[in-house]
Design goal:
With 233 residues, this protein is α/β, with parallel strands linked by helices. The strands form 2 sheets. Strands 1, 2, 6, 7, 8, 9, 10, 11 and 12 form a 9-stranded mixed beta sheet that branches. Strands 4-3-5 form a 3-stranded mixed beta sheet, with no helix packed on it. A hairpin with a 6-residue loop joins strand 8 and strand 9. Helix 3 packs across helix 4.
Amino acid sequence: MADSCDISQPAATGEDLQKQPIRWRISPGLTDYTDAVAFMEQEVASIRAQDTDELVWLVEHPPIYTAGTSARPQDLLDPGRFPVHQTGRGGQYTYHGPGQRVAYAMLDLKRRGSDIRKFVCDLERWIIETLGHFNITGERREGRVGIWVRRPDNSGEDKIAAVGIRVRHWVSFHGISLNLAPDLSHFDGIVPCGIAEHGVTSLAQLGIVASMGELDTALRANFEQVFGPTVEA
């Protein structure tokens, strides 16, 4: 199916991006979601004021559901199962939990052409190329945000990664989530991203045995191909 991202065009980084590496930070253990949002708010303000460099922050959260700006009450199927957080990112309901890598991208989009749609396409490209490192073919679908994979038996397709961003004064936050080996039954308490007719999958369910560290290495290498160099934060 065609999509609105022009994947024939490489993601341009430009000389300016080469001069200012993006900070890359990984937090061990589980990060409280409310604390994560507060931290992002501070970082976005500092990046906008040019007091600090851009940042990509990799975390895992305890089991939670988050509601984007388009979330519908009827899509929260089991309200008492996990904490529910209202968030200003785009999208609908999604799940975060152990075994899922969440990557928060706090980037200055003015340095990238002030083009939000292209930024989302670049995030999707980043996920697709990371999955390719594990010989998984990730695909976009028109009208369905996120990255999808076909089932091995060709009986359908499932979502393996979600994208949900917020932009304030041209600085982005929130970002992507990629399922390494979460408990997929935890998604049963919501209609993920408002799409009931498709399922959710993970690298583990697809037979890929990989550690979170191996996934992080692939994420960083492919992020640099799309967005530019990084430096340890």
